[in-house]
Amino acid sequence: MDFKEKMATTIQTRDPHHVGAKITLVFPIVALDLTYDDDQKSHLVFEARSLMVNIFNRPFDLQILLDLSELSIQDSKRNSAQRYLASTPNLNENLIHIDYVNIQNKKSPLYKDHGAELMVEFSELKLDIDTTTLMHLRPFIVVLLHR
Question: Which of 13, 88, 118, 129 is deepest in the core (most CB within 10 A)?
Fold first, then answer.
Protein backbone atom coordinates (compact mmCIF):
# COMPACT_ATOMS: atom_id res chain seq x y z
CA MET A 1 0.00 0.00 0.00
CA ASP A 2 1.50 3.32 -1.05
CA PHE A 3 1.26 6.65 0.82
CA LYS A 4 -1.85 7.91 -1.05
CA GLU A 5 -3.80 4.72 -0.29
CA LYS A 6 -2.84 4.94 3.42
CA MET A 7 -3.96 8.58 3.58
CA ALA A 8 -7.28 7.78 1.85
CA THR A 9 -7.94 4.99 4.37
CA THR A 10 -7.01 7.24 7.31
CA ILE A 11 -9.25 10.07 6.13
CA GLN A 12 -12.15 7.69 5.47
CA THR A 13 -12.04 6.17 8.97
CA ARG A 14 -12.10 9.67 10.56
CA ASP A 15 -15.31 10.53 8.72
CA PRO A 16 -17.89 10.91 11.53
CA HIS A 17 -20.48 9.08 9.41
CA HIS A 18 -18.19 6.11 8.71
CA VAL A 19 -19.50 2.95 10.39
CA GLY A 20 -16.46 1.00 11.57
CA ALA A 21 -18.55 -1.97 12.66
CA LYS A 22 -22.19 -2.93 12.32
CA ILE A 23 -23.46 -5.92 14.27
CA THR A 24 -26.97 -7.30 13.83
CA LEU A 25 -28.40 -9.92 16.18
CA VAL A 26 -31.82 -11.57 15.77
CA PHE A 27 -33.48 -13.66 18.49
CA PRO A 28 -36.94 -15.23 18.11
CA ILE A 29 -37.36 -15.44 21.91
CA VAL A 30 -35.15 -14.22 24.76
CA ALA A 31 -36.02 -15.19 28.32
CA LEU A 32 -34.25 -14.27 31.53
CA ASP A 33 -35.21 -16.05 34.76
CA LEU A 34 -34.18 -14.09 37.88
CA THR A 35 -34.49 -15.88 41.25
CA TYR A 36 -35.12 -13.63 44.26
CA ASP A 37 -36.05 -16.17 46.98
CA ASP A 38 -34.14 -19.47 46.94
CA ASP A 39 -36.17 -20.95 49.83
CA GLN A 40 -39.52 -20.53 48.10
CA LYS A 41 -38.08 -20.83 44.57
CA SER A 42 -39.65 -17.47 43.64
CA HIS A 43 -38.49 -15.78 40.48
CA LEU A 44 -39.18 -13.09 37.91
CA VAL A 45 -39.26 -14.04 34.24
CA PHE A 46 -38.42 -11.38 31.64
CA GLU A 47 -39.35 -12.42 28.10
CA ALA A 48 -38.93 -10.63 24.77
CA ARG A 49 -40.07 -11.92 21.38
CA SER A 50 -38.77 -11.14 17.88
CA LEU A 51 -35.82 -9.20 19.27
CA MET A 52 -33.54 -7.52 16.74
CA VAL A 53 -30.44 -5.67 17.93
CA ASN A 54 -28.39 -3.39 15.65
CA ILE A 55 -25.12 -1.96 16.93
CA PHE A 56 -23.34 0.81 15.00
CA ASN A 57 -19.82 1.83 16.00
CA ARG A 58 -18.66 5.10 14.45
CA PRO A 59 -15.52 7.12 15.24
CA PHE A 60 -17.31 9.51 17.62
CA ASP A 61 -20.36 7.57 18.86
CA LEU A 62 -21.95 4.20 19.51
CA GLN A 63 -25.60 3.56 18.69
CA ILE A 64 -27.67 0.54 19.76
CA LEU A 65 -31.15 0.00 18.31
CA LEU A 66 -33.53 -2.64 19.68
CA ASP A 67 -36.84 -3.64 18.14
CA LEU A 68 -39.15 -6.26 19.58
CA SER A 69 -42.72 -7.38 19.07
CA GLU A 70 -43.67 -8.47 22.57
CA LEU A 71 -42.45 -7.96 26.13
CA SER A 72 -43.58 -9.54 29.40
CA ILE A 73 -42.40 -9.67 33.00
CA GLN A 74 -43.93 -12.31 35.30
CA ASP A 75 -43.64 -12.83 39.08
CA SER A 76 -44.05 -16.47 40.16
CA LYS A 77 -45.10 -15.43 43.68
CA ARG A 78 -48.32 -13.73 42.48
CA ASN A 79 -51.53 -15.62 41.74
CA SER A 80 -52.15 -16.60 38.11
CA ALA A 81 -54.63 -13.77 37.44
CA GLN A 82 -52.01 -11.17 38.42
CA ARG A 83 -48.83 -12.97 37.35
CA TYR A 84 -47.89 -10.43 34.65
CA LEU A 85 -46.25 -7.27 36.02
CA ALA A 86 -45.77 -5.82 32.56
CA SER A 87 -46.95 -6.94 29.16
CA THR A 88 -47.58 -5.74 25.62
CA PRO A 89 -50.21 -7.02 23.17
CA ASN A 90 -49.33 -10.02 21.02
CA LEU A 91 -49.72 -8.52 17.53
CA ASN A 92 -46.56 -9.95 15.86
CA GLU A 93 -45.35 -6.46 14.93
CA ASN A 94 -42.34 -4.53 16.21
CA LEU A 95 -44.28 -2.41 18.70
CA ILE A 96 -41.36 -1.59 20.99
CA HIS A 97 -38.39 0.46 19.82
CA ILE A 98 -35.38 1.35 21.97
CA ASP A 99 -32.64 3.67 20.71
CA TYR A 100 -29.48 4.26 22.79
CA VAL A 101 -26.73 6.65 21.69
CA ASN A 102 -23.44 7.15 23.53
CA ILE A 103 -21.55 10.21 22.27
CA GLN A 104 -17.79 9.95 22.70
CA ASN A 105 -16.90 13.22 21.00
CA LYS A 106 -18.74 16.44 20.09
CA LYS A 107 -17.78 15.85 16.45
CA SER A 108 -20.40 13.08 16.30
CA PRO A 109 -23.21 13.80 13.80
CA LEU A 110 -25.64 12.63 16.53
CA TYR A 111 -24.39 15.11 19.17
CA LYS A 112 -27.22 17.19 20.76
CA ASP A 113 -25.61 18.99 23.74
CA HIS A 114 -25.43 15.84 25.87
CA GLY A 115 -23.31 12.70 26.05
CA ALA A 116 -25.94 9.96 26.02
CA GLU A 117 -29.52 9.53 24.94
CA LEU A 118 -32.05 6.76 25.56
CA MET A 119 -35.41 6.75 23.80
CA VAL A 120 -37.98 4.03 24.47
CA GLU A 121 -41.20 3.87 22.44
CA PHE A 122 -44.11 1.52 23.22
CA SER A 123 -47.35 1.33 21.32
CA GLU A 124 -49.01 -0.13 24.44
CA LEU A 125 -47.64 -1.25 27.81
CA LYS A 126 -49.79 -2.76 30.54
CA LEU A 127 -48.44 -2.50 34.11
CA ASP A 128 -49.73 -4.28 37.21
CA ILE A 129 -47.22 -3.45 39.96
CA ASP A 130 -47.64 -3.19 43.71
CA THR A 131 -45.21 -2.37 46.53
CA THR A 132 -44.42 -6.04 47.22
CA THR A 133 -43.45 -6.61 43.61
CA LEU A 134 -41.30 -3.49 43.56
CA MET A 135 -39.40 -4.93 46.53
CA HIS A 136 -38.85 -8.14 44.49
CA LEU A 137 -37.37 -6.02 41.69
CA ARG A 138 -35.14 -3.98 44.02
CA PRO A 139 -32.17 -6.41 44.29
CA PHE A 140 -31.90 -6.62 40.49
CA ILE A 141 -32.11 -2.85 40.08
CA VAL A 142 -29.40 -2.36 42.73
CA VAL A 143 -27.09 -4.80 40.92
CA LEU A 144 -27.76 -3.22 37.51
CA LEU A 145 -27.11 0.31 38.82
CA HIS A 146 -24.07 -0.81 40.87
CA ARG A 147 -25.43 0.77 44.07
Answer: 88
pTM of the model: 0.69
Q: How far is CA 127 from CA 58, 96, 121, 134, 136, in A?
A: 36, 15, 15, 12, 15
Per the DSSP assignment, residues forming a β-bridge with 61 are: 58, 103
How many residues belong to the chain? 147
For the chain, counts of helices (H) and of strands (E): 2, 8
The answer to whether the CB of 47 falls within 8 A of the CB of 30 is: yes
Give the model's confidence band at 19: pLDDT under 50 very low, under 70 low, under 90 confident, else very high. Answer: confident
Cβ atoms of 18 and 9 within 8 Å: the answer is: no
The pLDDT value given to residue 54: 96
